[in-house]
Amino acid sequence: MIKKKLLAFILCGITAASLMTGCGDSTQTTNDNSTTSDSSASGETATDAPSVPENVDIMNYTAPEKGDTIIELTFKDYGTVKFRLFPEYAELGVENFVGLANDGFYDGLTFHRIIKEFMIQGGDPLGNGTGGKSLWGSSFDGGTDSHLIHLPGAVAYANSGSTASNSSQFYIVTGMEIPDDLFDYYEQRGVMHSDKAKEMYFQHGGVPFLDGNYTVFGQVFDGLDVIYQIQCVATNSDDKPFDDIIIESVRVSEYNGEELKWHISDYTDFDDPNNHDIVNFTEPEIGDEIIKMNIKDYGEVKIRLFPEYLSDASENFVELAKQGYYDGLTFHRVINDFMIQGGDPLGDGTGGESIWGDKFDGGTYFNLVHVAGALAYANSGATSTNGSQFYIVTGEKCDDDYFNELEVYGYDYSEKMQENYKKAGYGYPALDGGYTVFGQVIDGLDVIFEVQKTETDDNDKPLNDVIIESITVEEYDGSEIKWYISDYDNADSDSEDTDNTDIENNDEETITQPAE
User: Fold this and answer.
1) Terminal-to-terminal C-alpha distance of the chain
2) Nearest 5°: phi and psi at 289?
3) pTM of the model
4) Beta sheet of 331-335, edge-to-edge order
């Protein structure tokens, strides 16, 4: 769900031909061709009273007539998506897409940018967000129309700052639930929506901040479950999927009266990944590679890896371990109720490299999260700056009071995610999405909880070195798995109180490596 911590970012307008452009000179185009300055992008309040879009009926979910032109978009390994077109509201947009599809332009291209609870984007022959063409050459102006908004399943053109820069790139909205106070927040910053648009967004969700800036020209009526499945794939720091999402074909067809399934709730057999338990606690198979870490004077820790989700992250750690890279290094940063961090050959948080030389992008997978015992890479602002440094989470006690406090700071988590963290007992969910989680402790979590209690200086460096004697790669032999600190009879899970509870001030900086 969106909460206030996300709104400033959202109001900047996530671009579309990268999917968005810089936030400063963007304008909102209404259906009467007037423009209003988006001063909210710089955090200022609009000085002139903003215009409210005409309160017209929203047409996204209106049924096509039998014989109307539709699009059938088939994804390799995922399935087919059908969407209706709106030539009555986006004539040039429809003409462009139909013409390119008939030319076979989209066949074999990829969806190069995917952001969960937002959209999936494709149609670039270069595959990086910088390419594309229109039916008439470089670009065209598809305009906007207030009858069509960014509800889940809406199809629109990406652009580089205005609808005049439309080409072949397009996106399909997934979106998110809309909090009650979202539109009040928008209006304070000069971004207006009609009452009928608000009603539709509250009912169905979506991405309302894109309205007026992008040409919506279609709406998915079959295969929305395919789109929702794709939005959950693992991606790198540029939102590019690690495994290509390939368009097998885009075909122009006719509507023959088939069932209309506008909403994800219409897909009764859809197994929504968002409703799954986290994968941190899935057992390894006998023979799978696991990590064994010996910490001097503390004990042994065993860790399961997840190469099936983030292969580069696992490969990097395994190969460094096999080289003996970590042997003799220290945990140079330890924060009670948070995490222990190590893997830096310099021992001060400024060193380390990957097996590929410098840094690498390990990406993220939405269902690998920061529960107690999670293994992740430290970074200096993005997962593309992963090296050798890693941390293991201890975290704070996750209960109802904890999540209520997080909400005060603008964080919000689904019931399923809260359930997962509460089951784990401890964790640090505020870090989710910013760091590459690639492993989970399966034995020795009590050792990690003991290490976090070591006395440290003002820079969180232990006064007495916490030394990694060795990290080796072994095969899982089927021995007992103990995921939770409560599984350890003699473990003291009640950590001392620290000043690490201010999430707003602490947040990711306590993990991030200092810039070199």
Assistant:
1) 35
2) -70, 130
3) 0.82
4) 331-335, 339-342, 390-393, 374-377, 437-443, 299-305, 289-295, 468-475
Q: Output 78 or 42, whichever has higher pLDDT.
A: 78
Q: Give the Cα separation of 499 and 338 in Å (integer).
A: 11
Closest CA to 420 of 352, 477, 353, 484: 484
- Check pLDDT > 90 for residue 351: yes
CB atoms within 10 A of CB 75: 22
> Are 393 and 371 spatial neighbours (Cβ–Cβ below 8 Å)?
yes
CB distance 266 to 455 below 8 Å: no
pLDDT higher than 80, residue 501? no
Running DSSP on this structure, what letter comes out for residue 381? S
- For residues 199 and 144, the answer to whether their CB atoms sit within 8 Å is no
DSSP state of 276: S
Check residue 309 and report its DSSP letter: T
Task: Please give the Cα distance from 154 to 158 (Å, whole number).
Answer: 12
Query: What is the C-alpha to C-alpha distance for residues 167 and 154, in angstroms, rounded to an integer?
Result: 17
Across the chain, which distance is largest between two alpha carbons, in Å? 76
